[in-house]
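We read letters as residues; the fold follows as tokens. Both lines appear below.
***
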Amino acid sequence: MKLIDGKEIAQQIKNEIAAEVGVMIDNGEDGPHLAAVLVGDDPASHTYVKAKEKACKEVGIVSSLYQLPATVTENELFEVVDYLNNDDQVDGFIVQLPLPDHIDAKKIIDRINPAKDADGFHPMNFGRMALNLPAYIPATPYGILQLLERSKIETQGKHCVVLGRSHIVGSPISILLSRKTYPGNATVTVCHSRTKDLRQIAKSADILIVAMGQPEFVTEDMVKKDAVVIDVGIHRVPSDKTKSGFRLVGDVKFDEVSKNASYITPVPGGVGPMTIVSLLMNTLKAHKKEIYG
């Protein structure tokens, strides 16, 4: 079993971005600028945005934060999105999800200028991705592609099973891995909560990508010998073995599954760091106007 070290791979990419941004600055150009809109007090969202700001600082990307109360109205949030859409100093931005229940997240995402959509959630970017056109790819699937490519994992002709069908992870990664490219050219099966014989299908996977949102859902008996396992989940579960009283686990029961896997991502330190670095890659592309000119 070989561990796929997301921290190490993310650092490689950050070094590459920092070098490219450094050349821009040395040439007297403005560097890329990524903004984030944060609504309310969700602890996980705050942690994620802080990590994003730290990563931006490491590579020389300008980072700005627009923090709004949970009571903000949909129209007030529209105004912030419109402001960022029209700010020539901002290359890309994200509206951190989840949003409060009284705000329709789909409407907010639709309002974002596709050319500044660092998260890759806008329907135009999703559609361009599905058609294999240049697009901003959603950050977590983009990170998974980088993990596979930089770990030199063969995908052509392999059976890839994706557990989960969200528009954030499951659906886009299934499209990306079926494209005529590398990583890609895989035969992809998408499973979800209504899939019959899910355990048997999972066990047929050469590459198993797990984004079910359920702690330690995948057990040893669901993974065939020498499968590649990518665990997207992250959860806090009670523990009497830590000072904090909890521990972090993924959607995969790591101690069991790692016995069967040829490659596996840890939690934490696997997909998580790659999600953040993918935002930086999208922001750099936006700054260089690679997608929309």
Remarks:
- The chain has a mean pLDDT of 96.
- The first strand starts at residue 2 and ends at 3.
- Residues 6-26 form the longest helix (21 residues).
